[in-house]
């Protein structure tokens, strides 16, 4: 019988597979890639919705998907499960990023948070005012929040295309701004885009939150253990009339930012487990079942090395960036251009979203920043100039995921919804191109100095 610790040369297919997956892992951690994948998914949706197979686009996303337990059946369209189900995981990652940044990142102190907070307030207020100025009809004003959000993955990905010449403080500022934008978007969804609340549903959600707190109190560290209480929170919010994806934000903000308390340091436990594994595997006779115990302790120690907010976010990020967000774009970005009615009210929605994102975002971000610096509440971070803030302002006009999400909530009318989504897509593309152009000029200026 072969010893479990005996080295064996891998086969040629194994070597090729290892190299492939190693390269794939490095590729997936390049920030610009997730933005490119998101763009390709949106482009695929547009092509599909305007192709000879356009009828299948609506048919696919309205396919019913059911969950049955005994005689109880919960049936919804595939579109619902993506927008209200999978997007909860997206909001979970957003919530954990907010929690982490508040604990030790760009939002951890008033001094760090004041400038991006002022910029974000301007970046929410000015686009909303531009949209409302163009859309004075009360039936259209429900879309005021569509151009207020910034897509983190897309904006940071576009910034990464400018290379390492961009100061790190610019990236941190953009990240902080986008996170505060997400906080504002979450609050807007909770307050303005949730129907009348059913308190029975809220009690169910509170029960789920209490179970999560109880699990945390007794030290349950396995992320899978929180799936059931998380589902209870989600279903409670769905019953209450609040948007169920807010469950992700609630759970993300509850995720611990400190490592689980243990009697022994995880590194010490891992070291002893490795030593025990080595001793047992080198024995004259080895029963592989005796190796299960040290391997299990090693897995527990590995889990406790990182705080849950870091560990879970890192595990979910590739699935969200390269699975959930592109799938959301594919399911929601398909606008039939030939059938889009941009006459009458729709053109106002389209134009309001376009102008608010392309012009309102940079104007609002710069104005908010300037006022904060002018009155002495903030100061520009090291290596950040007003030219650099202009780049951030332009990239802030990339609304995409969150803007499309709010557009789906804002309008029940299919024509208005299509006009809003088309405005978001075109404005995000223009904002990305303008941001890259101004960013390129900024990089050349930095290199010249």
Which helices and strands occur, and which strands form pairs?
Blueprint: H1 12-28, H2 31-49, H3 54-61, E1 64-69, E2 72-77, H4 78-104, H5 110-134, H6 152-160, H7 168-192, H8 199-217, H9 227-240, H10 246-254, H11 266-281, H12 292-304, H13 308-332, H14 345-374, H15 386-395, H16 400-410, H17 414-448
Antiparallel strand pairs: 1-2
Helix pairs in contact: 2-6, 2-13, 4-7, 4-10, 4-13, 5-7, 5-14, 6-7, 7-15, 8-9, 8-10, 9-10, 11-12, 13-16, 14-15, 14-17, 15-17, 16-17
Characterise the protein shown here.
It is built from 17 helices and two strands. It is mostly helical. It folds into two domains: 33-194 and 243-259 and 306-448, Na+/H+ antiporter like domain (Na+/H+ antiporter like fold), CATH 1.20.1530; 266-298. Strands 1-2 form a two-stranded antiparallel sheet. α8 (199-217) runs parallel beside α10, α11 (266-281) runs antiparallel to α12 (292-304) and α16 (400-410) packs antiparallel against α17. It is globular. The model has no long low-confidence stretch (mean pLDDT 82).
